[in-house]
Design goal:
cytoplasm; 11 strands; Rossmann fold; 2 domains; elongated; disordered N terminus; alpha/beta; 15% strand; disordered C terminus; six-stranded mixed β-sheet
Length: 345
C-alpha cells in the first residue's frame, strides 16, 4: 500500500506519479475517463505528466461522457476536450443517447458510461481504461457493502486492476485522497466542474457520504476503510489460493462441454470457506456474468451441497445463471443453466 501522504492537500509529485501509474507500462494505448470533476482532471494531469516523464509508453486518449441529463453537460465535456488539448492529449466526447430510466438512474448512467468507454477503447485500439476512483470512493464502496452484509469478497472493495469485456480497468488512485487529485488539477490551472447530483440525497452514495462524514469524528474515516479494503484483498487472495488447490485436488472429467465436475466426497474434510469459494468461482465462470450472487445465497447453497454429499442424496440448485448438481455418489457438477423453454399454448 502506498505510504500516507505527507500533506493532505499537496499535489502528486513526479515520483508518486511514476509509482502510481507504473501499471500503464505494457499497454499499447489507454483511454482516460474524464468527467471534468476534480478527481478525473487530476487523473488527466497526472497521466500527461507520466507520459512526459516516461518519454515513451502507451498512447493516451481522453474520453468524456455526456449523459444527456443536464443542459450544462455538453459545455463541461467541451471544457474537458480543451483541457486535454492543452495537455497534448487527444479527446473525444461520447454521448449517452436514448431514453433514460425513471428509477435507478445513477446505476444506469454508470453502466451506460462504461459501455461507451469500452466501445471507444476498442475503436482507438486501447487495451485498458483508466478510472479516477480515489480513497473516498473506495471507502464509500466498502461501507455500502458492509451495510448490505457483504463478506470478504465485498469488503475488499474495488480492485486496482480488473477486467471488462477483455479490457483492463485500471484504478491507480484507490489509496490517494480526492483532495490530492484536486490539487494536482489545480496546480495545472484546471478548474473542475460541479455536478449537482453529487449533493442530491435521493442517491444512495450521497447519503452514505454524509454518514461517513459524521463517523469521522468516531475514528471511522476514509483512510481506515481503504486500509480495511486492502486487508480484505489480502484475505481474498489467500482464500482464492486455498480454493484453487481444493479444486485442483478434486476435479474429475465432466463429460460435458462447458461444465466442471468435482469429487465432492473430500469436501467434507475441507474448511467451509474453501468449498464456498470454489463454488463461487465456478459459478462466476459458468453462470451469468451480469448477475451477482449474494453471500447469503452462496452460503446457503454451499451448506445444501455439503449436506447432500454427506447424506448420499441427489441435489439440483440454480444460482446466478448456473446449475449445480450433486449425485448420490458425491459427484458435483457446475454448468450453465439451460435456457428456459417458452410454455406451449
Amino acid at each position: 500500500m502506498p505510504a500516507a501522504e505527507p500533506v493532505a492537500e499537496a499535489p502528486l509529485d513526479d515520483d508518486e506519479i511514476q509509482d502510481l501509474l507504473a501499471s500503464f507500462h505494457g499497454h499499447s494505448a489507454l483511454v482516460l475517463a474524464v468527467s471534468g470533476g476534480p478527481d478525473s482532471l487530476g487523473l488527466m494531469v497526472a497521466a500527461a505528466r507520466w507520459r512526459a516523464l516516461a518519454g515513451e509508453g502507451p498512447a493516451l486518449h481522453v474520453a468524456s461522457v455526456d449523459h444527456g441529463l443536464r443542459p450544462e453537460a455538453a459545455g463541461e465535456c467541451a471544457m474537458v476536450v480543451e483541457a486535454a488539448r492543452r495537455l497534448g492529449l487527444p479527446a473525444t466526447i461520447l454521448a449517452w443517447e436514448g431514453d433514460k430510466p425513471a428509477s435507478g438512474l445513477q446505476e444506469a448512467a454508470r453502466d451506460a458510461r462504461l459501455a461507451l468507454l469500452v466501445a471507444h477503447a476498442r475503436a482507438v485500439g486501447a487495451t485498458g481504461i483508466v478510472l479516477a476512483h480515489h480513497r473516498e470512493d473506495q471507502a464509500e464502496t466498502v461501507f455500502m457493502r458492509l451495510l448490505r452484509g457483504s463478506g470478504p469478497l465485498g469488503l475488499k472493495g474495488m480492485a486496482s486492476t480488473s477486467e471488462r469485456d477483455g479490457l483492463a480497468l485500471l484504478r491507480p488512485f484507490l489509496f490517494v485522497p480526492k483532495a490530492r487529485l484536486a490539487a494536482t488539477a489545480r496546480v495545472a490551472g484546471l478548474s473542475p466542474v460541479h455536478d449537482p447530483s453529487n449533493d442530491d440525497p435521493r442517491f444512495t452514495r450521497v447519503r452514505i457520504r454524509r454518514i461517513l462524514r459524521d463517523l469521522e469524528g468516531e475514528g471511522l474515516d476514509a483512510e481506515r476503510l481503504a486500509i480495511l479494503a486492502g486487508r480484505m484483498q489480502m484475505l481474498d487472495a489467500a482464500g482464492a489460493h486455498h480454493a484453487a488447490r481444493l479444486a485442483e485436488a478434486t476435479t474429475v472429467p465432466a463429460g460435458t462441454q462447458g461444465a466442471e465436475a468435482y469429487d465432492g466426497t473430500t469436501w467434507l474434510e475441507a474448511p467451509f470457506t474453501d468449498v464456498l469459494r470454489l463454488l463461487a468461482d465456478a459459478i462466476a465462470r459458468l453462470g451469468d456474468p451480469d448477475v451477482d450472487a449474494r453471500l447469503e445465497a452462496l452460503e446457503g447453497l454451499t451448506g445444501e451441497v455439503l449436506m447432500a454429499i454427506a447424506g448420499g442424496e441427489a441435489l439440483r440448485r440454480n444460482l446466478q445463471g448456473a446449475l449445480v448438481s450433486v449425485s448420490p455418489q458425491g459427484r458435483v457438477i457446475v454448468a450453465r443453466e439451460p435456457a428456459r423453454r417458452s410454455a406451449r399454448n
